[in-house]
Design brief:
Number of helices: 14
Helix content: 25-40%
CATH class of the largest domain: Alpha Beta
Order of helices and strands: EHEHEHEHEHHEHEHEEEEHEHHHEEHEHE
Radius of gyration: 21 Å
CATH superfamily of the largest domain: Dihydrodipicolinate Reductase, domain 2
Shape: globular
Structural class: alpha/beta
Strand content: 25-35%
CATH architecture of the largest domain: 2-Layer Sandwich
Number of domains: 2
Oligomer: single chain
Mean pLDDT: 94
Distance between the termini: 49 Å
Number of strands: 16
Largest sheet: 7 strands, parallel
Length: 384
């Protein structure tokens, strides 16, 4: 039997871990604090063992053909993947593919190993929605390389009830603060659009939510351009807009005004220390308390125009709140990871370093599960 080695039992890990155990898989769970992992799994019956995490303990237990799942901080992914290469084990994570991870592609292919990444929520479920929309459009009678294509994808982890800060933190705010200092690249009106200060590109974004809501604020993040190829939109299509970004409650830009001002003027010599101070203060004031519910909104939209006439326009919209099964974020991230593990076991994913699969069968499986978890999940055809 293939053993699954699940590394980390943090806030976004437990529902998917439980899913694999309850589905009858043999799972070895690793965490720095064994007691915490045992407590998190106290209501689960199945074949699992718990170990103190270290690369050494993992190496002692993992065997060829096993699958290692890294739910650890990003700096652990490559060392864990390199260990997998040395023992001929597969690797799965929800994180973006780094250059260092991508460099392992040839070695993984040579050994016929699957190193699957970007199979969480964002990235992950958003990829599945994107593949589904692009495939739907390309198979429609409206498909033409002469059309202009606008692609928008926004995801937000939100509090169920908006507060004065328009946000709550489920883990250290430091990562969010550092992301505010990262350049984003997207396409607007056919041109490459670079933003060094994301708060300067915040705009209102109306969402057609049948269950009631109005406008949110959105802004681009990271580099969107590589995903044009990943979503198979690079084959001669005219791109008018292509943006992957973050969604927040309306009023977020104003609520964070003082934070933006300080981040913008930080002296490099004290930036790290000051960001840590800000992070600690935000955690004290705006972290989730026991019993508070989170919310995740994800929307992916593809609009196609020909001579200013909209000829094809569909949009996925998902709205999920935490419940007794875990937070919305934890369920959507970790259960998607669990699906990827089972797809590797079923030999359904190609070898090498890959992102969320684009095959129709797997895309449908991912989206069906997301719909099962969500409170609301719709595909809107704006022209019908």
């Amino acid at each position: 039997m293939t053993n699954i080695h699940w590394l980390g039992t943090g806030l976004s890990a437990i529902p998917g871990l439980k899913m694999l155990i309850e589905n009858g898989h043999s799972v070895l769970v690793y965490n720095r604090t064994v007691e915490k992992a045992i407590k998190a799994l106290s209501d689960v019956k199945g074949d699992y063992q718990v170990f103190v995490f270290s690369l050494q303990s993992l190496e002692e237990n993992v065997a060829a053909g096993d699958i290692v799942v890294s739910m650890l901080p990003g700096n652990f992914h490559v060392p864990v993947a390199e260990l997998c290469l040395s023992v001929n084990a597969h690797f799965v994570s929800s994180s973006y593919i780094s250059d260092e991870m991508r460099a392992l592609n040839d070695a993984a292919k040579e050994k016929n190993l699957c190193f699957v990444n970007e199979v969480g929520l964002d990235p992950g479920i958003d990829h599945s929605m994107s593949h589904a929309l692009v495939d739907d459009y390309k198979n429609s009678p409206k498909f033409s390389a002469n059309n202009e294509h606008s692609f928008l994808s926004y995801c937000g982890g939100l509090s169920d009830i908006p507060n004065d800060f328009c946000y709550k933190f489920s883990w250290s705010p430091l990562g969010v603060l550092k992301a505010l200092m990262s350049t984003s690249v997207s396409i607007r009106n056919g041109d490459v659009y670079r933003v060094t200060k994301p708060w300067e590109s915040v705009e209102l974004y109306p969402l057609p939510m049948p269950w009631g809501e109005d406008e949110f604020e959105v802004y681009p993040n990271r580099d969107s351009l590589p995903f044009i190829d990943q979503y198979q939109m690079d084959d001669g299509l005219k791109i008018k807009q292509f943006v992957r970004g973050t969604l927040r409650y309306k009023g977020w830009k104003n609520a964070w005004g003082d934070i933006f001002s300080e981040v913008d003027t930080l002296d490099a010599s004290i930036a790290e220390a000051r960001l840590k101070e800000i992070s600690d203060d935000l955690w004290d004031r705006y972290s989730y308390k026991d019993g508070e519910v989170d919310r995740v909104i994800l929307t992916v939209e593809l609009k196609v125009e020909n001579d200013t006439e909209v000829v094809w326009h569909k949009q996925y919209l998902m709205d999920t709140r935490g419940n007794d099964n875990g937070s919305a974020m934890a369920q959507l991230v970790s259960c998607s990871v669990a699906l990827a593990v089972e797809a590797v076991i079923g030999n359904e994913i190609s070898s090498g370093v890959t992102a969320a699969p684009h095959q129709s069968k797997l895309v449908t499986r991912w989206l069906d599960q997301a719909e099962d978890i969500s409170d609301h999940f719709v595909l809107i055809d704006h022209l019908n």
